[in-house]
Amino acid sequence: MASYDRLRARGTPRPLETGDTWWYAAVAGEAAGSFSTRVRTRTRRACLGTVLLLTVVYAGLVLTATGRRWGDAALTGRRADTAAVTLLREHPSLAGLTTLSLVLGCALLLAVGLLRKRYGLTGCVASALVTSLALTGLLQRYAPRPRVLDTGGALVQSGFPSVQTTLALGTAFGLALVVPYRHRGLAVLAGTLWAGAVGAYTVATGGHRPGDLMAAALVVLAVFCGLATLLARKGKIRPAPRAPLPRVLLAAVPLAAVAAVGLGAGFWLLGDTLALPATAPYDPAELRLAHRCGQALAAGVTAAAGLLLLALLRRVDVDGAPAPYRLGGPFVEAAGAPHDGELVGPFTEDRDHEIS
Hints:
The protein has helices spanning 22-27, 30-63, 65-76, 82-90, 94-115, 119-142, 163-178, 184-204, 210-233, 245-273, 284-312, 332-335, and strands at 238-239, 316-317. The protein is an all-alpha fold. The protein has a two-stranded antiparallel ribbon with strand order 1-2. The model is unreliable at 1-11, 18-33, 322-329 and 340-356 (pLDDT under 50). It contains twelve helices and two strands. It is globular and about 60 Å long.
């Protein structure tokens, strides 16, 4: 924990007493100590809520016959979606570009962290990404699910969650932590949209069902919420200045629009696609509708995950150790005017009166 955020042996700051100066409350009491507590509380709750939502998605789309039928219809409907078929036929290089973008994204994540000499944070982010991939692999291999056989009688392997989406969104969230705080919004915006495009491509090619993308987004969000909770508990965060409103809107508005449109359109189309018959033949129009419904829901969940991460990390800077408290105040005439953003208190700039 940071020096100003350290609790007493019994776990709580000393209560204020008569004669305590105002700066005790600001430096050693609730104002400083409550920041890490608030961040830790909201990220921990978000992690638990994400895990609960992942459980609901798994139960609804994997364990129920209706959910599996909807996922199969969304996967089969890609052939009835002429726009997707035409795009994939006319641009066969998209497969190589998708793989190349994943490699470059991971390289960019490591390069930014190492060039900025944020070695510890880069290691934490890389560990979170590896943990997300490991959890994805464990869920694919060991999560209980009905046995599904293909037309040749072979067992169909589960793609729940999607490895590609986990890698893409995990890289995007990792960049959000290693880049400077003022660039976090743009990093989350660009990375989340890129991860959504990677996921949409895997569904269009038949590699994954829409539910696999939604599960991957929830896995990554849960892991990075856990990482933020750990950083807050270890005192590796500090309050950041309030970002200008245009910069906030530039990142939040596009993500909110994609999340609202995707989830709204997906749930609106979902009612029509859940009524598919239990056996073939299927109406090609209904299959195409199921495919577009799945794409919309997957895009909405991915954008909502990025937007939630931005909200949880608002005014949270992980870029270095907490700044020391340099005191000034009634004798500021002798100390000189403080610099911009410098914290001041009741004494001069004499180092005998410096609290760090």
